[in-house]
Structure formats: C-alpha cells, structure tokens
Specification:
Layout (H helix, E strand, L loop, with lengths): L1 H13 L3 H35 L7 E2 L5 E2 L3 H28 L10
Antiparallel strand pairs: 1-2
Length: 109
C-alpha cells in the first residue's frame, strides 16, 4: 500500500501545470525579495560598524545608480542564493500543500 502512495506522490510531483509554474515563479520572487532584504540589513550593519569605529566607508556602484558599501558581486550572490532557495522552497511547499495535502488545520478524530 505504501509503495502505491509513494508512486502516486512522485507522479503528481513531476507533473507541470500553470498553477505550479506560477507558484514556483512567485516563490522565486519571494526568495529574491528576501535576499534583497538580507543584503540591505548586512549593508546597514556594516555602515553602522564602520561609523562606530571611525573607519571610512567605501561605496561600490551596483546599477550605475545605486551605491553600496558592499561589493557588487556580493549583491548578485545574495540575490542568486535567494532565487535558488525560492525555487527549492516552491518545489517543497508545492509537494506538501498540493500533493500530500498536509495543511495547517487540526484534524479531528
């Protein structure tokens, strides 16, 4: 019985639908936003630390417009990690919510 259930879950997980694509794209977007927030928090903490110790703050250009105290490659690295994490988060939660139907509601006996 368990083998049939596992095969059914694997079959439903691998199937593509418009809803699954939108779900994963939105979680990738969420991952990018969280990466951007993480980059901003690291930048703020770095500037606060440098100002506290009376050290100079050197800024790097990211889009030719935005100046950041962190190097531009670190910006792209954190955003990329957020996007990849969002992709895997979307796949995992798609399986949990839509395939296995494990919701947060309490089950009554």
């Amino acid at each position: 019985m368990k083998k049939k259930k596992i095969n059914k879950i694997n079959k439903e997980t691998n199937r593509l639908s418009f809803k699954k694509i939108v779900y994963i794209v939105l979680t990738i977007f969420l991952g990018k936003l969280l990466g951007l927030i993480a980059f901003a928090l690291v930048s703020i903490n770095l500037v606060a630390f440098l100002e506290k110790n009376n050290l100079p703050v050197a800024y790097d250009r990211i889009f030719g417009i935005v100046y950041s105290p962190l190097p531009a490659y670190l910006f792209w690295l954190i955003i990329s990690i957020g996007a990849i994490g969002g992709f895997f988060l979307g796949l995992t939660w798609w399986r949990i919510v839509y395939v296995e139907h494990r919701h947060w509601r309490m089950k009554r006996k």
